[in-house]
Design brief:
The chain is α+β, with helices and mostly antiparallel strands. The protein has five helices and ten strands, in the order E-E-H-E-E-E-H-H-E-E-H-E-E-E-H.
């Protein structure tokens, strides 16, 4: 007889896990959504967005980098955690230039979907309106750093999946920015292909395929149909061209 999988409790619901799994990996496999932006099932955790914070006793921990243990009582919901999540999301919105109604990714953007899920109704904080470039030099892919949330997913996808080094994160603290790995700093001078995972994995509208922006009409996109918590995790970003 196969021994039963060990369990932890997520808001009182039992979640089975395999040895070595993190809380978010096990919860996702069990069909339970833990909010996240920088985590992706195909890559090691980055731990930067802090949206996946859960409470275990008095401690708050990132579910993407905390190993599951039998008997853990994990809290995801609750007013304090929800308020913290809303604040993190509002800060992401004001730190960049996110104009959802005019963004090609609207309805298929994880930042927008998590904000809706968390009940964010406005920016709350003063908009910083940073001056960031748009790089349209690549024939098939647009890079709009106004929308970059520094999740590092394109960096990991390029290095670990595509075997390239198209993107990197440079600078420190508030000066951290996405850097393009070509001598000119232009995307068009890299070996990025539109079919690369790095070109498709961006959870927001910072890396976009050209000429396909409205192939799926607004109103019929992934998060138009259902809240993010009701949908399975996607594991490979936008479909290849
Ligand atoms: S461009 Fe997109 S995938 Fe890359 S770091 Fe910015 S938000 Fe993340
Ligand atoms: S998903 Fe855990 S810190 Fe971003």
């Amino acid at each position: 007889m196969t021994p039963a999988a060990p369990l932890f409790l997520l808001d009182g619901h039992p979640v089975p896990f395999k040895p070595g799994e993190t809380l978010i990996e096990a919860a996702t496999r069990a069909g339970r959504h833990i909010p996240h932006l920088c985590w992706h099932p195909g890559f090691a955790p980055h731990g930067s967005c802090r949206l996946c914070m859960v409470a275990i006793g008095e401690r708050q921990l990132a579910a993407c980098s905390t190993a599951a243990e039998a008997g853990l009582e994990v809290r995801l919901h609750g007013e304090a955690l929800a308020a913290q999540r809303r604040t993190l999301l509002q800060l992401l919105f004001v730190e960049g230039n996110h104009f959802c109604p005019s963004c090609e990714r609207s309805g298929a953007c994880k930042l927008q979907a998590e904000a809706c899920e968390a009940g964010v109704e406005g920016p709350h904080f003063e908009q910083l309106y940073p001056d960031r470039p748009v790089d349209a030099s690549h024939p098939d892919v647009l890079l709009d750093l106004n929308r970059c949330i520094l999740c590092g997913l394109c960096v990991r996808a390029s290095a670990q999946h595509d075997g390239k080094a198209v993107f990197a994160l440079g600078g420190r603290g508030l000066g951290t920015q996405l850097v393009v790995g070509s001598a000119s700093g232009r995307l068009g001078d890299t070996d990025l292909a539109a079919s690369d995972l790095a070109a498709r994995i961006c959870p927001v509208g910072a890396i976009l395929p050209k000429r396909r922006g409205f192939a799926v009409p607004i109103g019929q996109r992934r998060y138009d149909a259902a809240p993010i918590s009701a949908l399975p995790e996607t594991d490979d970003g936008m479909p290849p061209p």
